[in-house]
Specification:
The complex is a heterodimer. In chain A, about 30% of the residues lie in helices and about 20% in strands. Chain A is α+β, with helices and mostly antiparallel strands. In chain A, strand 2 and strand 3 form a beta hairpin. In chain A, helix 1 runs parallel beside helix 3. The longest helix of chain A has 17 residues. The chains are: A alpha+beta, B mainly alpha. At the A-B interface, helix 9, helix 15 and helix 16 of A face helix 2, helix 3, helix 5, helix 7 and helix 12 of B.
Chain lengths: ~550, ~325
């Protein structure tokens, strides 16, 4: 669902156009994919595009207005992980690592090279000649102190929820640091990509300014935060990436950036249509269709049903299977979510440990009803109520999904109702471990799960294990599998994680529905391909005019 | 029309110049009584707000992902001072309030009170623009409607009033955006700024007070028209314009002032839906966001600031009463 005039060109023409800089980054991705090129091949072409812009010697020019759904809570570096924070902060701050926008592989940002020293420690070689927006140099000392500050248990910034074993860093020499985890942590690099580095001079001299004055090393520097209204950035003239666009994976083609926020999807779309904004983020599919260009992008979010497996009805695996069979996932993807892929597990193909052999339960109402009757004949109390619990406004059309599921369950002979619950009250019930949940609660949560680390072991700790923070399922054998597979490194890691996922999904504690796409409304002349991780890096944007 | 035996009191405001006047008490003591009353209301509210916000739940459960460990939750609670006994937290809170310090917002990590005060101008601006549109128009419509009850004009005004009261803000706001901003391009879709920005949200907000106030004006005017002093005035040969503008309108003003005060309080309390639709940075949307995140200091600061505004509006309404009908100063 995008620009209508997109034409697929033969490979040779595609390569020539890419080399000549005639294709936008978005068209490179689309046409490359249509031609069946591998992600890495598209990545090579994408890296050529920014060089073209620089080769033309163009100074940063023009302005972009990006309409978000929410204002950042704080401009502190650690908030660059959050949905409200990263659209702004990832343009101001940089991390040791980034992801290649085309291949999704981890690549250097403030680090130029890295190497595992043992199963706990990575040695990073830092980029030289980098300065913060206030002129202070980025050094090994600043990098190590910045990581220790960001991941400190004492500071307890919200980002520590993405930490596994305690992270710490120390200086090796002027351009080298060692970053260690307290215990073996195979996804330590992914965690570091999630944590951009602060300006330690600001931290020590003006800590009170951190929340409102972001001073990073990134391609854009803060001009003004008019709270409640807008945030404006402008291109940082001394950004290291201007001299090395290939390593930076982008250019400062656009000079000024303004962020505004409108909670209503319809209004964000209207802003793009009226020309007030060039990007409207997270639109409802219907609203997106009204904008000049509607981009549908895969994400790391998966929508799924979480079943209270301790409930007298749902403790029976036949009932859980019946629930899965009664939900027409393909129809939901098409008619309710407006796109995306039917999910077979709680993570998408981008995650390490994704198991391509798992298939979704098909849609079969007759079989579902028969399973329910079979269970009832064996004494399962199918008249006990199941509560399809919906968190109000959690994602677009959440409420419709809840109504649909309850209706389908009633159709197959179960007793279900929908309850829409406000965020705070929902959270009280949601963040509850298997042992704490009352047996009679009988919730089916219509939930979303984001695997930002792109590694299924991140999902283990929440949902797979008996002691998971939000687990409604418990099987000691699965616990053993997670404990064995999570620390594994190397080539065996993906296979071990995938096997664990297969064992988990065979128990049907969850019903995956869709790998949720994100919809962005774009101005017609804007070149930008949304990233899988959802980051909105202005250095990857340009205008064709 | 004479109403023999009607217990409705005669209103001697303008038609009894030779009636021996009772001495009107000065405004000062009345104002002082109302002020002291307001301060007690606010003090009570501060206590209630603290305990209610602290008893409704744990903000940490909303701040961290479900996968966060118990140790990580404990560390965040410690940082926020939520592990202290509730009475210790209350003492700290009251000491802070006395200094105008509600603590740092959990969500935004800067002092809570300035965040709320920053939003105040936007709320006052939108409320003023809305009342400026709604009040004169609704008084005019109410009077026109009351002068000829049952006429076509009266029926049209009634339909407008009922429409205004029953139209959903959310729908109306979106329709105004799609028509005037997207289709016609006359004004911006949303945002905060000059007159061009406030126009659509103020129009969307004005419909409800327009409907309610015009109905109250109509009803109050009809009530006054049935009073003997109006018959007397007409019998003296005063024109209808004079009867309405000099006599009945002033006597009908008390219920209208009550309604305008009520609408003003409601607007200051936060036009949450309209602020959400138009991205208007007011106090209402801030309070909702704070509640969503259980940001205790920000909730407390917002509620107290809103309460101060409402108490002030009520005080102004009381003062208005005392000027319209000085007899209320005896109360």
């Amino acid at each position: 669902m995008a620009r209508n005039d997109l034409q697929v060109r033969p490979i040779d023409r595609f390569i020539a156009d890419a080399a000549a800089g005639k294709l936008s980054r978005r068209d490179l991705v689309k046409q490359g994919a249509a031609l069946g090129l591998s992600a890495s091949a598209i990545g090579v072409a994408l890296r050529a595009a920014p060089q073209t812009v620089l080769a033309q010697g163009a100074e940063p020019a023009g302005k972009i207005v990006i309409s978000l759904s929410a204002e950042p809570a704080t401009l502190e570096n650690w908030n660059a992980y959050s949905l409200d924070g990263h659209p702004v902060l990832r343009n101001i701050f940089e991390a040791l690592l980034n992801r290649d926008p085309a291949t999704n592989e981890l690549v250097g940002e403030l680090a130029t090279a890295w190497e595992w020293q043992d199963d706990r420690t990575i040695r990073f070689t830092l980029r030289e000649g980098v300065t913060f927006h206030d002129g202070n140099p980025f050094t090994a000392e600043v990098a190590a102190e910045g990581l220790n500050f960001t991941w400190s248990s004492e500071n307890a910034f919200d980002i520590i929820q993405f930490m596994g074993p305690q992270i710490s860093a120390e200086v090796v020499d002027e351009v080298t640091i060692d970053v260690s985890a307290a215990e073996p942590d195979p996804i330590l690099p992914a965690r570091l990509y999630f944590s951009p580095l602060p300006n330690m001079a600001q931290v020590s001299e003006r800590p009170d300014s951190l929340a409102s004055e972001a001073i990073g090393t990134g391609p854009y520097q803060l001009v003004e935060w008019a709270r409640g209204e807008r945030i404006t950035l402008t291109a940082y003239p001394d950004w290291w990436g201007a001299a090395d666009t290939e390593a930076a994976f982008g250019t400062q083609a656009i000079k000024d950036v303004e962020y505004v926020w409108r909670p209503e999807s319809t209004v964000r779309a209207a802003q793009v249509t009226a020309g007030e904004a060039q990007i409207g983020r997270f639109l409802a599919p219907d609203d997106c269709a009204t904008t000049p260009v509607c981009e549908e992008s895969p994400s790391v979010e998966t929508i799924f049903l979480r079943l209270d497996t301790m409930h007298p009805v749902m403790s029976d695996i036949r009932i859980r299977e019946a629930i899965g069979l009664a939900v027409d996932k393909e129809r939901l993807v098409e008619q309710v979510f407006g796109g995306g892929e039917v999910a077979t597990q709680m993570v998408g193909p981008s995650a390490v440990g994704y198991n391509a052999e798992i298939t979704a339960l098909g849609f079969d109402m007759e079989r579902a009803a028969a399973l329910v009757q079979e269970a009832a004949a064996d004494g399962v109390p199918i008249e006990m109520e199941i509560n399809v619990a919906v968190r109000r406004g959690a994602y677009t059309r959440n409420e419709e999904l809840g109504e649909y599921v309850a209706n389908q369950l009633n159709e197959i002979g179960l007793t279900a109702r929908t309850e829409v619950i406000e965020h705070a009250a929902y959270q009280e019930q949601y963040v509850m471990n298997y042992d704490e949940i009352p047996v009679e609660r009988g919730w089916i949560g219509t939930l979303g799960h984001g695997n930002e680390m792109m590694d299924v072991s991140q999902t283990f700790s929440g949902y797979y294990r008996c002691d998971g923070g939000v687990s409604t399922f418990c099987n000691p054998e699965i616990d053993s599998l997670t404990a064995e597979s999570a620390p594994v490194t190397g080539d065996d890691r993906a296979a071990g994680l995938a096997a664990t996922t297969a064992a988990f999904m065979a128990e049907i504690p969850v019903i995956p529905i869709v790998h949720l796409p994100f919809f962005y409304g774009l101005a017609a002349d804007l070149n930008w391909a949304p990233r899988l991780d959802g980051f909105m890096l202005v250095k990857e944007m340009s205008y064709s005019s | 029309m004479l109403h023999a035996g009607n217990p409705t009191p005669y209103h001697p405001i303008t038609l009894t110049p030779h009636h021996p006047r009772q001495e009107i008490p000065p405004i000062g003591p009345y104002l002082l009584r109302r002020l002291i009353h307001s301060i007690f209301v606010l003090l009570g509210l501060v206590v209630v707000v603290f305990f209610v916000t602290h008893l409704v739940g744990d903000p940490v459960s909303l701040m961290l992902r479900p996968e966060a460990t118990a140790e990580q939750r404990l560390a965040v609670r410690e940082r926020l001072g939520l592990n202290d006994p509730i009475l210790v937290q209350f003492g700290r809170f009251m000491g802070g309030v006395a200094r105008g310090d509600f603590g740092d917002s959990i969500w935004q990590r800067v002092p809570a009170l300035p965040i709320v005060l920053d939003r105040l101008p936007a709320t006052l601006y939108l409320a003023s623009a809305t009342l400026l549109l709604a009040v004169p128009l609704s008084i005019l419509l109410g009077i026109v409607s009351a002068i000829r009850p049952g006429s076509i004009v009266d029926r049209v005004v009634t339909v407008i009033s009922l429409g205004g009261v029953s139209t959903a803000d959310f729908w109306l706001g979106l329709m105004l955006i799609l028509l005037f901003a997207v289709r016609l391009g006359w004004v911006p879709t949303s945002g905060y700024g000059g007159v061009q920005y406030v126009l659509l949200p103020a129009i969307a907000l004005a419909f409800r007070p327009l409907g309610r106030i015009s109905q109250v004006v109509r009803s109050a005017m009809l009530d006054q028209f049935s009073q003997p002093y109006v018959t007397t005035a007409r019998a003296k040969g005063l024109t209808e314009r004079v009867v309405v503008s000099l006599h009945t309108l002033k006597n009908a003003a008390i219920p209208v002032a009550t309604m305008v005060g009520d609408e003003a309080a409601s607007l200051l309390n936060g036009a949450v839906v309209i602020e959400t639709v138009f991205g208007w940075p007011g106090v209402g949307i801030l309070l909702i966001q704070a509640i969503d995140r259980r940001d205790l200091p920000l909730i407390e600061a917002s509620v107290i600031v809103i309460a101060v505004m409402i108490v002030t509006v009520n005080l102004l309404v009381d003062l208005t009463y005392s000027f319209i009908d000085p007899r209320v100063r005896y109360g």
